[in-house]
Amino acid sequence: MVGLSRTTIWRREREGDFPQRIHLGGRRVGWHADEVIAWLEARPKGLIGQSCKTHHG
Length: 57
Hints:
With about 55 residues, the chain is an alpha+beta fold. The protein is about 35% helix and about 10% strand. The protein has two helices and two strands; from the N terminus they run αββα. The protein has helices spanning about 5-15, 35-40; strands at about 20-25, 30. Strands 1-2 form a two-stranded antiparallel sheet. Strand 1 and strand 2 (about 30) form a beta hairpin. The chain is globular. About 0% of the residues are buried.
């Protein structure tokens, strides 16, 4: 949905720049959809997924 790696999401959570995860039990985690959508809408256009690498081949 957001186009970010697990590591980038984890780093942004620590920095306060991504909604905090919710522990669902075991090793499962999730996020409140409304918080993620609000985060996406607050981002300037063109920055979503900016840290993703694009491979051409």
